[in-house]
UniProtKB/TrEMBL annotation:
Designated name of the protein: Phosphoglycerate mutase
Residue stretches spanning the membrane: none
Alphabetized UniProt keyword annotations: Hydrolase
Annotated site (Transition state stabilizer): H175
GO MF annotations in UniProt: fructose-2,6-bisphosphate 2-phosphatase activity
Active site: H11 (tele-phosphohistidine intermediate), E88 (proton donor/acceptor)
A biological process from GO: regulation of pentose-phosphate shunt
Superkingdom classification of source: Bacteria
Entry annotated with the keyword Hydrolase: yes
């Protein structure tokens, strides 16, 4: 049986990413810069033999997937599906506000002075999720247990089905905090990662019901794509 690998990509840079606004279940499209970066990523991944591809149901993830598959050597033949379980966290009434506002409120709910003070401690994703839930005046944010089960079942189902069907490489386009949360669910010693770059690749292997982390936040595929682009133009 072929090894099962998930190439988990954070979507390309969007309008809200650029102006530093909270973007969970709300959505904005990729900027021109974001599209360009994902075109390079697609070139960098073009020869990876993907057996199938998935993205969340958010427009920015769908747009990212289509660009990557459009650059892939066999992109038209790769089955592609969306799965709403691998979308970003829902931030409720905090959606659309400035990042600094949300990350100013959340530490205060948890009795920290500021964001840096919070991150430098042993704060957990569960505490952050519960603080977001407490700060959400619209009652839309997800309780931690719902969030945990959603994210885990989404990625685990993708990996488990692929393993049952002979293994192979799977492209999965998701979101920054969701990917960071998944890493922590796989390995509780993983830190709270707030800096996963747009278009970065986090590669996981899956065997007998267990994930192993192979690489995190790898942007070399984008750099390789840039070099390939120059070669193709010459």
């Amino acid at each position: 049986m072929t090894e099962t690998n998930l190439y988990v990509v954070r979507h390309g840079k969007t309008m809200f990413n650029t102006i530093e606004r909270v973007q969970g279940w709300c959505d904005t499209p990729l900027t021109k810069e974001g599209q360009e970066g994902i075109h390079y990523l697609g070139l960098g991944l073009r020869d990876v033999p993907f057996t199938e591809a998935f993205s969340s149901d958010s427009g920015r993830a769908i747009e990212t997937s289509r660009i990557i598959l459009g650059e892939h050597t066999h992109g038209r033949k790769i089955p592609y599906s969306v799965d709403n379980r691998i979308r970003e966290w829902c931030f409720g009434s905090l959606e659309g506000g400035y990042d600094k506002e949300m990350w100013g409120v959340v530490p205060r709910v948890l009795n920290f002075k500021n964001y840096d003070d919070m991150i430098e401690t042993d704060v957990t994703f569960q505490q952050i999720a519960e603080a977001i839930l407490a700060a959400d005046t619209a009652n839309w944010a997800e309780p931690y247990e719902v969030l945990r089960d959603r994210v885990w079942s989404g990625f685990e189902d993708i990996a488990h089905r692929r393993e049952k069907n002979g293994g192979g490489n799977v492209l999965v386009v998701s979101h920054g905090l969701t990917i960071a949360f998944l890493l922590n669910l796989i390995d509780s010693s993983q830190p709270i990662r707030a800096g996963l770059q747009n278009g970065s690749v986090t590669r996981l292997t899956y065997k007998n019901g267990k994930f192993s982390i192979q690489e995190i936040n790898n942007v070399s595929y984008i750099e390789n794509g840039k070099q390939l682009s120059k070669t193709l133009l010459n």
